[in-house]
Amino acid sequence: MAPSNRACVWVASRKVEVQERPVQPVGDNDVLVEVISTGICGSDCHNWESDKVSKQLVLGHESAGIIKEVGKAVTDRSVGQRVAIEPGFACMACEFCAFGNTNVCANLKYCGLDPTDGTLCQLFTCKSSMAVPFPENISWEEAGAIQPLAIAVQLARRAALNSHQTLAIFGCGPLGLLILAVAKAYGVRKIVMFDIEQSRIDFALKYGAHAGFVPPRREESKQPLEFAQEYTKSIIAELGIEHGFDVAVEASGAEVCAQMAICSLKNGGTCIQAGLGKPLTSVPLFLLTAKELNIKGTVRYTPGCYADAISLLSRGLVDLKPLITSTYPLTKCAEAFEAQHARKDIKIVIMNQE
Q1: What is the pTM of this model?
Q2: Are 351 and 37 in contact (CB under 8 A)?
């Protein structure tokens, strides 16, 4: 008799169902994982809202579980091992993979991204290399957030974060807070958060930010760039940060935040664009040249980011527990997505076996 494999499946815009799905066979180099926990994020919610998904798609990509079976050729994984699942299937053959940039693989397939089924199910088969072991001192709830923590680690690499820097983070959603956590672990000397909601700023301050601000509404008579320059100049003066921030991270996707991030930088500073905004955004190109700024995008994670994220967690350098504000059983995945859409929680984790 085939094992039960319930899954959270997109069936229409803003509608998911729990369905039985077949378990994929375990190949020689594969492992079968009993998925215990799965975090949901903005990209999951985007799929949930979409009306353009090509099939009834299993959602989810932030998962962890226990290995139940290993393929014949697998020697470095074992039954009973606790693992986090890397959701990106890189081809390992294109020019980008050859240089270690698997996050931008030319042939990348990604769990939960149409048309590749995701990990929000009870049993998931993957390559053994995609199952990254983690120790028992990491809870299952935290394990469901290892993937976004790995994304924050990748961003820290792109920014070359270090203890001498000042850092501005625009957006106090889950990604912004994870970047804050990693920056604290890396010893960044001053971290300042910006968000439009005071409650999120309050949370960020409790979570370790040195300062936090809610920008005022821009007056209609004032041009966006003028507003961004004046506001960031006033904050820099208030904080006594000479010349501006070393690094600014835009983690909201809002155009005004991208403008403020660039305006907040000192000469030679670095702006990391992490938020997914509009296809076309207006930014002050003159400042990029005049201040010789470095503008970088960041997406997903690269080899070693999972291991680094797990190390930060297991050594207690990052604490994800305060971020996980709700858990739901798989049977109530529809409610979980509604809650994610409502933005009242910081991080929601679904328990796949419940």
Answers
A1: 0.95
A2: yes
